[in-house]
Design a protein that fits this description.
By secondary structure, the chain is mainly α. The protein has two domains: about 425 residues, Glycosyltransferase, CATH 1.50.10.10; about 80 residues, no CATH class. It has 19 helices and 17 strands. The longest helix has 22 residues. The radius of gyration is 23 Å and the shape is globular.
Length: about 550
C-alpha cells in the first residue's frame, strides 16, 4: 500500500500541503507538460492509426464526401496503411452499422488531438473535456481549439460527437461536454473579431449536438429527462481485446442467483443454425460478432436487453459499475443525474452564446428549456430526505437508492439551490476516503465503484464545491487526491487513469470487468493541474474561512 503518511482533515483545513519533496512536484509538472506531446496524435503520424483493442491491420476511413487530404496521401505511403471511404455520407448517428464494414478502423480528423493514453489511442468524447482543461492550464490554446474543431468535424461528417473516432463507435456518443469546451476555449482565447466569428460557428454545431439528446432514442420516457442509449446491437466489437469480459459477467450472475435480472438466456454453448438464428433475436448474432460467439458459459448467454444496457453504459463513460444493476446492464432504463445536469448546463451555455451573438429570442428558448429540465430534475432525481440526487428508473417509476459520486454534478452545473447545496456538502462523508473521493459506497469488484477514485467526477465535485463557495471541502479533497497522485508518481513515475483512494494506491484489485490501470493519463494529468491551481488561488481565502466552516 502506497498511501504513506496520510494527511488529516485538521491539517488540510488550515491549508497545510501534504508532505512531498519539492523535486517531486517539479518532476510531476514536467511529466504532465511533456505528456501533451507524447499523447498527441495526427494524420501525419503512423502511431495514430494503431488500435490495441482489435487484432486487425490499421485502416483509415475518410468521409464519403470529402476529397483525400494531402496529408492522408502521404500517410498512406509512409505507413503502408489502407485508406478507405465510408460507404455513404453520414447525416445522423447510427446510420451505418459498424458490422457492415469489413475491417474496423480510425475515422479521419483534420486537427491534432490528445489521446487518453494506454490502450486508448483515439480522441474520446468526454476525456477530451478534461484534457482540454489541462491544455488550457498549460497554455496550449491552439491544440485545445483544434480538438473542439475536430468535434465540429465529427458532427458534420459522422453524424454526432462520437464515443471516439473509430468505426465501431459510429452508434454512440459520450457525455455532452461540447458547450463547456467551447466556453473554456472562448474565455482563454484573445478577444477580437476572429474569436467572435469562431463562437458563431461553434454555436451552430453546439445546437446540432444538443439535439441528439432530445431525440426519441435518448428520451427517458415521459419524464422530460434524457437517458444514455447506443443504436448498435449485441456486444461491443472493441471488447475483443478482453475476451473474458462478457463470460465473466455471466459467471458472476450464475454465482449470485439471488440477484434477479433479465440478463441471462439459456442456449447451447455450441448452437446449431436454427439456435444461432434464435440467439440473434434473444441475445446476439454469433454470425456477425466474434465477441458474441465467445460470450457464453455453461449453456447461458447474455440477453439482448443486457447488451442494450451494456452499450448505453459505455456511452455514459462509467463502464462498468453496479450503479444501474449488476455491471450497469440496465443503464438505458434510467434518467441519470450526470447526463441531465450536463444538459442543464448545456442549455444555459447555449443561452449565453445566443446572448453573445445577439439572438435574444433564442437565448430565451434555451433558458426555458433549462428551467423545464431543472423542474424535472427536482421532481425525479432530488431526494430531500437523503440530501442527495439519485438516478431514476423511468420503467419502474422508482428512484434509485445507489449512492454515486455523480450526485455532485448539479453543484458544478449550477442547478442546486441553497438547501440542496447544504445537503450535498453533508453527503461528502459517504464518498470521502483518505486518498480522495470514491465513486460509490459499494465495492462491486468493478472499476467504477468503491474503492476507486477517478479524475473526471472528482474534479466535477471539487469545482462544484468551489463554485458554491465551499472552499474548505474543495481544498481538502484536492489535497487528498493530489497527494495520492504524487505518492504513486514518486513510486513508478507514471500517472494512471484511476486510483484506489481507500489505500492511496495505483495498484488494482478488480475481480470482474476491465482489470488494467492505464498509463498516461490525460484526464488525471489535467485534474492534477486544476487542483494545484485551485490550491494556489484559494489559499488565502481558505485560511480565512477554515475556522468558520471546519472539516467534516
Amino acid at each position: 500500500m502506497l498511501f504513506s503518511a496520510p494527511v488529516s482533515r485538521a491539517q488540510t483545513a488550515t491549508g497545510q500541503a501534504p508532505p512531498s519533496a519539492p523535486a517531486a512536484t517539479t518532476n510531476i509538472n514536467s511529466y504532465i507538460h511533456h505528456a501533451w506531446d507524447t499523447l498527441s496524435r495526427s494524420m501525419v503520424d503512423c502511431h495514430s492509426l494503431m488500435d490495441p483493442k482489435v487484432r486487425t491491420a490499421p485502416v483509415l476511413y475518410l468521409p464519403q464526401e470529402v476529397p483525400t487530404p494531402p496529408q492522408v496521401s502521404a500517410l498512406q505511403k509512409q505507413c503502408n496503411v489502407d485508406v478507405e471511404r465510408l460507404p455513404t455520407q453520414i447525416t445522423h448517428i447510427g446510420q451505418i452499422d459498424p458490422r457492415s464494414l469489413k475491417t474496423p478502423g480510425l475515422l479521419y480528423l483534420p486537427n491534432k488531438y490528445v489521446v487518453p493514453g494506454g490502450r486508448f489511442n483515439e480522441m474520446y468524447g468526454w476525456d477530451s473535456y478534461f484534457i482540454l482543461l489541462g491544455l488550457l492550464q498549460d497554455g496550449r490554446i491552439a491544440l485545445a481549439r483544434g480538438m473542439v474543431e475536430n468535434f465540429f468535424y465529427e458532427i458534420e461528417h459522422y453524424g454526432s460527437i462520437l464515443n471516439a473516432n473509430r468505426t465501431y463507435y459510429l452508434t454512440r456518443s459520450q457525455p455532452p461536454f461540447l458547450s463547456s469546451m467551447i466556453r473554456d476555449v472562448y474565455d482563454a482565447d484573445r478577444p477580437g473579431k476572429q474569436r467572435d466569428e469562431w463562437l458563431a460557428t461553434a454555436y451552430s454545431y453546439a445546437v446540432r449536438d444538443h439535439s441528439l439528446w432530445l431525440s426519441d432514442v435518448h428520451r427517458a420516457g415521459d419524464t422530460g429527462l434524457a437517458r444514455y442509449f447506443d443504436l448498435g446491437e449485441g456486444p461491443v466489437p472493441e471488447q475483443e481485446d478482453d475476451s473474458t469480459y462478457y463470460p465473466d459477467v455471466i459467471r458472476w450472475l450464475l454465482a449470485h442467483p439471488d440477484v434477479h435480472t433479465n440478463y441471462l438466456v439459456e442456449a447451447p454453448d455450441q448452437p446449431d443454425a436454427p439456435e444461432i438464428a434464435k440467439l440473434a433475436e434473444t441475445s446476439c448474432d454469433a454470425r456477425l460478432s466474434v465477441v458474441c460467439a465467445r460470450a457464453h458459459v455453461n449453456g447461458h448467454w447474455l440477453s439482448r436487453d443486457y447488451y442494450k444496457g451494456d452499450r448505453a453504459m459505455r456511452e455514459s463513460g462509467y463502464d462498468p459499475s453496479f450503479r444501474f444493476g449488476p455491471f450497469s446492464g440496465s443503464t438505458h432504463h434510467y434518467a441519470p443525474i450526470c447526463l441531465n445536469s450536463l444538459l442543464y448546463k448545456y442549455e444555459r451555455d447555449l443561452a449565453w452564446m445566443a446572448e453573445k451573438l445577439g439572438k435574444p429570442s433564442e437565448a430565451k428558448h434555451w433558458n426555458d428549456q433549462a428551467n423545464a429540465r431543472k423542474t424535472a430534475i427536482n421532481k425525479y432525481l432530488w431526494n430531500a430526505k437523503e440530501g442527495m440526487y439519485f438516478d431514476y428508473n423511468y420503467e419502474t417509476h422508482q428512484q434509485s437508492t445507489y449512492r454515486y459520486l455523480t450526485t455532485f454534478y448539479p453543484l458544478w452545473a449550477g442547478l442546486a439551490d441553497t438547501q440542496q447545496q447544504k445537503g450535498l456538502e453533508k453527503a461528502l462523508h459517504w464518498f470521502e476516503q483518505p486518498g480522495g473521493l470514491a465513486m460509490s459506497t459499494y465495492n462491486s469488484g468493478t472499476q467504477w465503484d468503491l474503492p476507486f477514485g477517478w479524475a473526471p467526477p472528482t474534479w466535477i465535485a471539487i469545482a462544484g464545491l468551489e463554485k458554491v463557495g465551499d472552499l474548505t471541502d474543495a481544498r481538502r479533497i484536492s489535497q487528498e487526491f493530489s497527494h495520492t497522485i504524487r505518492v504513486n508518481f514518486d513510486h513508478d513515475h507514471t500517472i494512471r487513469e484511476k486510483y484506489d483512494v481507500v489505500h492511496g494506491s495505483s495498484e488494482m484489485s478488480i475481480t470482474t470487468g476491465y482489470k488494467s490501470n492505464e498509463v498516461g493519463f490525460g484526464w488525471t494529468n489535467a485534474a492534477y493541474l486544476k487542483m494545484q491551481q485551485l490550491l494556489v488561488h484559494t489559499g488565502e481565502k481558505s485560511e480565512q474561512t477554515a475556522s468558520g466552516r471546519g472539516s467534516r
